[in-house]
Amino acid sequence: MSAEDTSWVFDSLVAFLNGPIWNAPLQSFVEEKSLMTFVDETVDKAPEKPANFKPIEASKPC
């Protein structure tokens, strides 16, 4: 198979990931979780990270 024959697979994947079925839930998740992490400029230190972020950060490779 040549690259031209299989390029539709990549194009379909990109179209799916940019579509509303995938993008809307992902965008709402990011917006919902981002609101919790804003730092108040009047406070000297950043707030503690919410408990649901700690497992994500613990699993990140160094």
TrEMBL record:
Subcellular location: Cell projection, Cilium; Cytoplasm
Stored InterPro entries: BART_dom, BART_sf
Matching Gene3D superfamilies: ADP-ribosylation factor-like 2-binding protein, domain (1.20.1520.10)
Keywords: Cell projection, Cilium, Cytoplasm
Occurrences of domain BART (ranges): 6-42
Name of the protein this chain belongs to: BART domain-containing protein
Predominant localisation class: other
Keyword Nucleotide-binding: no
Cytoplasm in keyword set: yes
An example Gene Ontology CC term for this record: cilium
Pfam families documented for this protein: ARL2_Bind_BART
